[in-house]
Amino acid sequence: MTLLFRLLAALPLRANHALGAIAGFLVYLVSARYRHRIVDNLGHSGLYASWGAVKRAARANAIEIGKGATE
Hints:
- The chain is built from four helices and no strands.
- The chain is an all-alpha fold.
- It is elongated, with a radius of gyration of 14 Å.
- It starts with a helix and ends with a helix.
C-alpha cells in the first residue's frame, strides 16, 4: 500500500486526477450497489428535474470521488 501511495505522490496532479477519474468511473460501472446508492441519494435530494440529470450527476460524482481518492 505504501508503494501505491508513493507512486501516486510522484505523479503530476493532472495524471493523478486522470487515474482517479478512470478508477471512479470503473467503480461506478462495475459496482451496481455503489451506483444505485449514489443515484438513490441524489434522486432523493430533489436537486434534479429528471432521472437523466440524476444519472449524469451520479457519474460525475463518482469520477470526482475517484479523483479525491487518488489525491
